[in-house]
Design a protein that fits this description.
Blueprint (H helix, E strand, L loop, with lengths): L1 E6 L16 E3 L19 E6 L9 H8 L12 E3 L12 E3 L4 E4 L6 E10 L5 E13 L5 E2 L7 E5 L8 E2 L11 E15 L4 E9 L9 E2 L2 E10 L2 E9 L2 E6 L6 E6 L7 E3 L3 E5 L4 E4 L10 E7 L3
Amino acid sequence: MIAIRLFVSALLFVGGHSFSRAAIAFTASGTGIQTFDALPTPSNGWSKMTIGSGNGTYTTSSAIDLVAQTMAASDITNELITTSVVPPSVSAQGPKWNSALRCIQSRPAGVAADVVMATLRNDGDHDVGVLAVSYRYAAIVSSGSTIVESVPGHRVFYSTTGQPSSWILVPELSNAPQGTFTNALSARIEIFGGWYPGALLYFIWIDDDGPFGDSPPTREGGYTIDDFLVISPLKLNITFPDQDTIEFTWDDPHSPFCIQWKQEIDATWVELVCPGTAYLQPDGKYHVSMSKAALRTPCFFRLARKGA
Ligand SMILES: [Ca+2]
Ligand SMILES: [Ca+2]
C-alpha cells in the first residue's frame, strides 16, 4: 500500500480460453500505448472482418448492438489492409491500417458493417476487475462534404469469452457525435466476472455502412483509432485522519505515480465525492469536494506520472 499525506496548512503544494491465440500482452503496466507505426497484424492482436452487404442495413444503434451479439471472436481473423489514402477512402474490404496517418481506420462501403477487434491476454499474475481504456478517435471526411450517418462512429463492446451473446457495450466509446471530430476517449470498465491470468479479453469496434456513400455533399464518415491503451486504474482511498490532514492511499506497490496538489478553478475537471474512494487514470485531474471546515475552499489534485 502506498500512502501520501497532504498537510493542508501548506495548501498549495504538498506531498507529494484459448491461451495460445496471439494477443496484446496486458501486464502490471497495462498494454503500453499502441501507436500503430507499423501494420498491426493478427499476431499482434489486431484483426478485422466485414459483415453483410449493402449500405443502410442498420438504421439504429440498437440494431447494431443486436448484431454484435451474433459475433464470435473466432470469426474475426483477417489482417487489416494497408492504405495510405487521406482522408480514408470507402472500401468493401473492411477496416484498414493507414500508413500515412499511422492509425486504424474504418469507412465501409458495400458491406453492412466493418468490425475491428483487439485481442488482449492477461499476462499479469492476478485477476483484473477494473480496466481503463483510452484512445484518440477522429471522424474525417473530404473537404466540402459533411458526414451523415444513421449511427455515427463506432459501437464498441468487450467480452472475456468472445462468444456470441457475450458482448458488453462500452457506452463512453459508443456515442459519437454526427460530423467531424477529434476526441480523446476514455472509459472505466468493471469486468463482469473478472479477467483471470492467462485469459483473453476482446474489444470490437463496429462501424455500420450508413445511408450515404462517397458522393458529395453528404458522405460516409471515416473513423480513426490511435494511441490505444488499456491499464488497470488505481483504486485511490481518500480519508481525513485529523483536522489538518488528508490521506491518499492506493494499493499498487509498484505504482510510478505521485499526487500533486493545488488550489485552482477549472470547470473541466472531474468531481469526486470525498471522503471516499475512486478509480483514477494516470495523468488525470480530479476535483475533491472538501467537507471539513478548514478545507472548504475548492481544492484539486492530480495523479501524475512520477518525474513528469
Ligand atoms: Ca499513430
Ligand atoms: Ca459508418
